[in-house]
Structures are given as structure tokens and as C-alpha cells.
Recover the amino acids of this structure.
């Protein structure tokens, strides 16, 4: 059982090569259900999701981000967004939803990569994606049928664990 839990998590890797095929809508809905199942402070759920499947728009959004250009062949781009202003748990809640989304995509055999947004980068993607003025785009996530394989891994590192006391190992 424990191994199955780890297998599930370790299967998720950042996939940056896609076949260009479309993703069935029900797979996207499953992924979005997983995202919205995430924990959030006071269950505030600050998230909304822009889902783009139009090829020209996928391309324009991915090219607006200096490290997401690989996403032009993705079947979809999802941008989790929400009202960040005045909500102190925004980043933590959005990160939880984003990781859930990635885990679900991996279990469905899809490839995806979390491309972070902040500052000028967020502004560029925000404008190309047409997000409303009063929201913040948390991440740009190209999702596609994978054209590359990466081995599962946990990156478990005993040196980073301090049982009972931070000075111990
Ligand atoms: C906050 C954040 C921002 C990231 N931004 C990018 C990005 O802009 N472009 C990219 O290709 N990968 C990005 N990544 C993916 C990381 O490079 C990747 O998770 C890391 O190298 C570990 O590899 P793995 O996801 O396969 O385990 C980002 C990941 C996180 C969590």
C-alpha cells in the first residue's frame, strides 16, 4: 500500500515534449476536479482555471513565457488564477491545487509542466491569455500527450530529515 502511494506521486515528472494531439475534454474535467479537491485555508478555494485548447492561442500563451515555449505542441494550457490581492493564503492554496492537477494529469498518462508566473512574466501571460484585470495568473501549465518518457523518482534525501530535533539527522 505504501509503495502504491509513492508510485502515484513519483510518476509525476515535468514533461516538455508533446505529440500535438488534442486532449479529450473528459480528461481535462478529471484534471480540474483533482485541482479543486485540494486543501485551502478555511476552504476559501481562491482558484479559477482558464482552459485553452485552441492551437493558435496555446501557441501565443506559451510563447509569451520565456520558459514555456516547449508548450506550443501541448493539447491544452491551463492557467489557475484568482484574486490574490488581500488574500494571504493565495500562493499556498494555488500551489496545492496546481500540484493536484499535475498528479491527476500524470495518472491519466498525460504530460504536463508547472511554469511559474510572477512579476513581468505574469503580466505578459496575463495580457496574452486575456485574464481579467483584478486577478493574478498563478501558473501556466501546458498539458499534452507525451512525446517523451521520464523515470519515476522520489528524490528522497535522508540528510534533509531531522527526526524530533532540527540539529539531529
Ligand atoms: C514554481 C515552479 C516554477 C517552474 N517554472 C518552470 C518553467 O518556467 N519552465 C519549465 O520548463 N519548468 C518549470 N518548472 C518545473 C521544474 O523545472 C521541475 O519541477 C523540476 O526541474 C523538477 O523536475 P520534475 O518536475 O520532473 O520532478 C517549475 C516548477 C515550479 C514548482
Amino acid at each position: 500500500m505504501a509503495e502504491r502511494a509513492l508510485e502515484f506521486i513519483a510518476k509525476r515528472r515535468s514533461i516538455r515534449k508533446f505529440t500535438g494531439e488534442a486532449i479529450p475534454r473528459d480528461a481535462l474535467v478529471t484534471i480540474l476536479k483533482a485541482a479543486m479537491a485540494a486543501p485551502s485555508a478555511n476552504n476559501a478555494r481562491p482558484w479559477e482555471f482558464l482552459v485553452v485548447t485552441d492551437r493558435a492561442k496555446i501557441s501565443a500563451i506559451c510563447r509569451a513565457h520565456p520558459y514555456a515555449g516547449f508548450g506550443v505542441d501541448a493539447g491544452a494550457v491551463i492557467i489557475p488564477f484568482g484574486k490574490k490581492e488581500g488574500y494571504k493564503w493565495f500562493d499556498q492554496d494555488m500551489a496545492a491545487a496546481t500540484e493536484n492537477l499535475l498528479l491527476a494529469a500524470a495518472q491519466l498518462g498525460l504530460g504536463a509542466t508547472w511554469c511559474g508566473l510572477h512579476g513581468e512574466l505574469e503580466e505578459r501571460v496575463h495580457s496574452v491569455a486575456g485574464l481579467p484585470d483584478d486577478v493574478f495568473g498563478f501558473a501556466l501549465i501546458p498539458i499534452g500527450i507525451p512525446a517523451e518518457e521520464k523515470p519515476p523518482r522520489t528524490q528522497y534525501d535522508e540528510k534533509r530529515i531531522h527526526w524530533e530535533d532540527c540539529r539531529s539527522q
User: Anything to note?
Assistant: The chain has one domain: 15-148. The first helix runs from residue 2 to 10. DSSP finds five helices and six strands in the chain.
